Amino acid sequence: MKIWQPSLREKRRYPWYMAGGVAGIAVLMVLLITGGVFLAFSLHLPMKEFSVVLCLLVTALAVWLAVRLGRKSVQNTLVFWLDDEDRLFALDVRQMVEIRRGFAGHISSALEIRKQLERLEHLSAGEFSALPGVVEILHVESIRELSHHTVLVCYIADWNGRKYNRTLLLVKGYEDEYQLLQQLERRRSKVQETEIQEHRSFYKMLVSLAILLVMVGVCVLSHPAVGKLPQALYFPCLGLSLIPLFALVYYGIKHRRGE
Q1: pLDDT value for 210
Q2: What is the pTM of this model?
């Protein structure tokens, strides 16, 4: 029997790391926006253009920091368990906890997650496999290594007996991680159906890009400054262009993950 989970030190730090991360991002955004506004006034910069650029940059930074924080959360809450019958299970401990709203609720949920992580050490294999949220990895469709994590497309059986594909993110940093990757490689499917799925995602991404370019072209040609197409087309096309944009991002992420 073998379990892969955060170290004792990481489990103790988890609530404060997550709370500090959320608070730090919020404070940093306020400081950047406030400092940017004062800078614009002191340098007599054009406020409208500067506000748009500042908003885009601050938003991009916030998203990047949030992704890094979320990646750390996945590393600390995704547990793998190999029992004596050579069955490999996975559990996202966050599914065992009610996620509460607000900053205080966030801290409370993080403390409960830590308690559940400490509880896992004292469970038997039978008790672990019966926990709500536990899935058994029947075989692995694909393994794709990225810079900070490994994307696993797994065929799993959940605690209700349902079987389906699910993507797991194995963030680098587990103790004895090489042994875990070996166990996953042993369960790798010989039938590489994921290559077909990956190609489908790529083609859907290209179709979304083509539609987005068409919509942008119509917006440009119908803009009052150009006037090549009726102006009534501008705002409807501008709003509808969000649909292929979201589809492009969605299928781009799936293609990068090998889904």
Answers
A1: 92
A2: 0.66
